[in-house]
Amino acid sequence: MSSSLSSSLLLRNARMGPRGPIRHVLIAGGLVTEVSAEPPPADESVDVQGATLLPGLWDAHVHAVQWAQARRRVDLSGARSAREAVSLMLPCSGLSVGYGFRDGLWPDTPGKAMLEAAAPGRPIVMISKDLHTAWLSPAALTLIGRGDHPTGVLREQECYTAVAELPPPPAAELDRWVAEATTAAAARGVVGLQDFELADNVTDWARRGREHRLDVRVTCTIPKGRLEEAIDRGLRTGEVVAGSGGLLEVGPLKIFVDGSLNTRTAYCETPYPGTSSHGLLETPPEDLRATMARAFAHGLHPAVHAIGDLAAGIALDAFDSVGCPGRIEHAQLLRPADFARFAKPGLVAGVQPAHAPDDRDVADLHWHGRTGRAFAYADLLAAGARLELGSDAPVSPLDPWDGIASAISRTDDDRAPWHPEQAIPLSAALPAASRGRAGVRPGDPADLMLTASDPADLGPAALRGIEIVGTLLGGRWTHRSPSLFTRCSM
């Protein structure tokens, strides 16, 4: 009952998108070849009995290795204080890693002394939900040669470097975890992801593809620190990675302008309350322009991390100056005059809607009086911006339905929507989560998903839990619920 690229597959009685008609869809050679009112002949036929057929989903911003590891780490997301976070780590033994704390609202201050008092001599590492802070015990600091660090709380580049230096799981085991994560993503309708891991992603994913079955396509981004290496290798954004069977492509060059909201390092026009700090300017404007220009001259498009409003303005200025296509990642807080600038041809706003309800309390505190232009997706769309939705996994789960539901509802709990004027309709959210695909048509890649319910009939909570009965990648089943197996006929 399995399809292959050499045979044809017919999906019978599929609803063609939200509130769409029932049609029969023929797939062959990895493509949708026919959409018809009458069923054509095929090597294999599956009656999907009115399941809704949609383009498969893309998660446009993932940290794949960190997501694969986070699925196996201690969950710190519920910790309401530093001491409570420490208590969650105590049942562990050996080198213990926790993930997901948010210290922006904590009443107490994390530090290595608190960890040492609670668990003397134990190597403990705790990573914040936004990935911009790591909190290490003295023993863990010693493991990475930083035993003299004064606080054990490392932020921004110091955090990224420290986490990268931690003793990793065996490479083969970590690759298996990542491959398993792609299969879990496929079960949620995902057909592709863009990996922003600070690593040699082209090499790492090529190796995984040789050793494991990959159930998604991967766009392999390049960290700024590997720019010269990428130029020497002749890597160019958008090109297929040799030997990957079309599953891997070279992505953009990732450049940081600032930090994050929770860490109070997003670079903002207004200082953070009670301080004179505007955040962290990680890459000055002249350096940003020079790096983008060098990358573009060698066929690499930039993806610029900018969370604060000043950072976003600096990124937009650089795109105007260099004249290249690319991406601005996050764009969480924007100055009013900058919305229209996102309509620049070739520019993508990579946004993470699940962060809006996650960060509403921190934003109300640290961006007080400005949150009407925070996570402002409706205003971006109205200005003509192209949005692509991501999760920033593990910051949010690698499940685009969570982001879609947050984008249309502006809440993820029983509280009223936060700035509901910035909600976007399902008709905009689905294409933004599908790399711009708004329907299924002949000639399209057969990267598709089938939902048991019509998404247009569901509220936000039901959307988050929507049942995916099937996912196809180039016509190959990557996920198929047991109920779909019973619908086969030849």
Topology of this structure?
Blueprint: E1 9-16, E2 22-28, E3 31-36, E4 44-47, E5 52-55, E6 57-62, H1 64-70, E7 74-75, H2 82-89, E8 96-101, H3 112-118, E9 124-128, E10 133-136, H4 138-143, E11 153-155, H5 157-165, H6 171-186, E12 190-195, H7 201-211, E13 217-223, H8 227-233, E14 248-256, H9 285-297, E15 302-306, H10 309-322, E16 326-330, E17 347-351, H11 355-366, H12 377-382, E18 386-389, H13 400-409, H14 426-432, E19 448-451, H15 460-464, E20 468-473, E21 476-480, H16 482-485, E22 488-489
Parallel strand pairs: 1-4, 1-5, 6-12, 7-8, 8-9, 12-13, 13-14, 14-15, 15-16, 16-17, 17-18
Antiparallel strand pairs: 1-2, 2-3, 4-22, 5-19, 9-10, 10-11, 19-20, 20-21
Helix pairs in contact: 1-6, 9-10
Notable characteristics:
490 residues; alpha/beta; 9-stranded mixed beta sheet; 8-stranded parallel beta sheet; 22 strands
